[in-house]
Amino acid sequence: MSEIRSLYGLEILDSRGWPTIKATCTLSSRAYASASIPSGRSTGTAEAWELRDGDQARYRGRGCRQAADNINTIINQALRGRDITSQQDLDQALCELDGSPNKSRLGANAILAVSISFARAQARERGISLYRHFSELLEEPVTHFPRLTINLFSGGRHAGRQVAIQDVLMVPSGASSIDESLVTMSNIYQTAADQTYETYGMRLLTADEGGQAPPFESSEVMLEAAVAAIEGAGYRPGEDVHLAIDVASSHFYRDGQYELDQRRLQPGEMIEHLCRWRSRYPIVSLEDGLAEDDWLHWPHLCEALGNTTLILGDDLLCTNPERIVRAIHSGACNGLLLKVNQIGTLSEAITAHRLARQAGWQVTVSVRSGETEDDWAADLAVGWSADQFKNGSITQSERLAKYNRLLEIEAGERLPIRPWPRVLKPGHTRHL
Question: Which residues form the active site (predicted)?
Answer without folding.
Answer: 209, 339
